[in-house]
TrEMBL record:
It holds the Pfam family Ketoacyl-synt_C. GO terms for cellular component: mitochondrion. This is 3-oxoacyl-[acyl-carrier-protein] synthase, mitochondrial. Its EC number is 2.3.1.41. Belongs to the thiolase-like superfamily. Beta-ketoacyl-ACP synthases family.
Length: 488
């Protein structure tokens, strides 16, 4: 299909050139005096650049818009469990994955609550059974989580190509928010005590940001785009959004996209605790410590895991009779340019990335009926995001089902955006919006239609159901993804 699109583009481009050279454009062409001085203008009839550029832009837009992108597989590893359907059931049942952290290394850290992946051989527990053979020296726990999520997503999508041309049209777009800091700590200690010869030759490959993507590509032989994103807590959503555009632009037909993280370590927790970003008021009751939008919220809860989506060009999915869970309609990005860790209080950065996603989707604000928010359970962040929603959607904001699934999962950092994208896919697919766990008394100052207490059946006024999911990160990096129920 991509070859056909390229051929169509070439013919159209040549046609445009031919039209211009035969002076068939209705607009006035540039004369020699109107052209740049460095341009050779021996003839008065010259290329009508403004009109040519407009036609070319419309043609490229048409090519891109004709390549619709759908979701055909989802894989999740989280503190709620492993496997998309298992985790979704846990989320809908109101289960919390948050627990206490134990160990001497964590004793001095004021926050004692975290979201840890459960390991074992019982249903919903993480293990390496059935994964492609990997060299354990080259992978960290984070990469193992990523490989399990990839296996889950590809199995659900029924896409494990064996033909070279299929592998060449399949890519990966996977990132992480932080390098595995304990690897650096341990290597630094070895360097200090024993110098050069005790440093493992696998040290650098284990800590590079792109290694999770690399190992998925190696494990399944994917030879398409191999791309990694690291944009703090926006990583997972940026990865999916970038993959969406790669497919829409014809760079691949299938991409495994998302984020992974395994940063619940003494050093990482100490760093966030020193910023006063973590919850400390609920150490005795960890299950209620992550409480987005709630009046008693006091910081986020660090969590770990991985979440990957299989994105696929629609015609490619149809041709192989793939089951389609949702469609990606648009993607928006913005920067706050305000502060290295704090968003602007007016929420303009968050508002602009949602506006960009709507523009990219060719939608009006009133067509959005659900937003899965970034809301991490911090006093400032939750208020700013709510304010941004009110500013953008105005009176319609009271009709939007607003939730945050971090009440159940905690904050997966670089994997937060992708697990929340997976939950948003399941919401548009099943018509159920999960309640925000631990939201008991909504914060003052923002009157939104928060989903609290119990899950809500999404009776859409439109067909199809359409939602946004947001992610924001340190450095002022923002993303919003528009996800729709798939309609033939």
């Amino acid at each position: 299909m991509a070859v056909g699109a390229v051929a169509s583009f070439t013919l159209s481009y040549n046609d445009l050139i031919h039209q211009d050279q035969t002076n068939s454009f209705p607009n006035k062409c540039l004369t020699e005096n109107e052209m740049a001085p460095t341009t050779n203008c021996s003839r008065k009839k010259q290329l009508n650049l403004p009109l040519f550029q407009r036609k070319l832009k419309r043609m490229c837009s048409s090519i891109h818009q004709s390549r619709r992108v759908v979701v055909t597989g989802l894989g999740v590893v989280s503190c709620l469990g492993t496997g998309m359907h298992f985790v979704w059931d846990q989320l809908l049942s109101g289960t919390s994955g948050i627990t206490n952290i134990k160990g001497e290394a964590f004793e001095q850290i004021p926050s004692k609550v975290v979201g840890l992946v459960r390991h074992g051989n019982n249903p919903g527990e993480f293990n390496l059974t059935g994964l492609p053979t990997i060299d354990g020296r080259a992978v960290t726990q984070m990469t193992q989580y990523c490989l399990r999520a990839a296996e889950e997503a590809l199995t659900m999508a029924k896409w494990k190509p064996v033909q070279d041309n299929d592998k060449e049209r399949t890519g990966v777009c996977i990132g992480t928010g932080m390098i595995p800091l304990e690897e650096v700590v341990n290597a630094g200690e070895l360097q200090r005590q024993f110098h050069y010869r005790k440093i493992s030759p696998w040290f650098i490959p284990r800590i590079l940001i792109n290694m999770a993507a690399a190992h998925v590509s190696l494990a399944y032989g994917f030879k398409g785009p191999n791309h990694s994103v690291s944009t703090a807590c926006t990583t997972g959503l940026h990865s999916i959004g970038d993959a969406f555009r790669f497919i829409r632009n014809g760079d691949a037909d299938v991409i495994v996209a998302g984020g992974c993280e395994s940063s619940v370590t003494p050093l990482a927790m100490a760093g966030f605790a020193r910023m006063r970003a973590l919850s400390t008021n609920f150490n005795a009751t960890p299950q209620v410590s992550s409480r987005p939008f709630d009046k008693a919220r006091d910081g986020f809860v660090m969590s770990e895991g991985a979440a990957l989506l299989v994105l696929e060009e629609l015609d490619h999915a149809r041709q192989r009779n793939a089951h389609i869970y949702a469609e990606i309609l648009g993607y928006g990005l913005s920067s706050d340019a305000k502060h290295i860790t704090a968003p602007p209080e007016d929420g303009r950065g968050a508002q602009r990335c949602m506006e960009a996603a709507l523009r990219d989707s060719h939608l009006k604000p009133e067509q959005i009926e659900h937003i899965n928010c970034h809301a991490t359970s911090t006093p400032l962040g939750d208020s700013v995001e709510s304010r941004a929603i009110q500013s953008l959607f105005k009176n319609h904001s009271s009709n939007i089902l607003v939730n945050s699934t971090k009440g159940a999962t905690g904050h997966l950092l670089g994997a937060a955006g992708s697990i929340e994208a997976a939950f948003t896919v399941m919401s548009v697919y099943t018509g159920t919006v999960p309640a925000t766990l631990n939201l008991q008394t909504p914060m003052t100052g923002c009157d939104l239609n928060y989903v609290l207490g119990s899950n809500i059946t999404w009776n859409s006024k439109f067909n199809p159901r359409i939602a946004l999911t947001n992610s924001f990160g340190f450095g002022g990096t923002n993303a919003s993804l528009c996800i729709s129920e798939y309609v033939v």
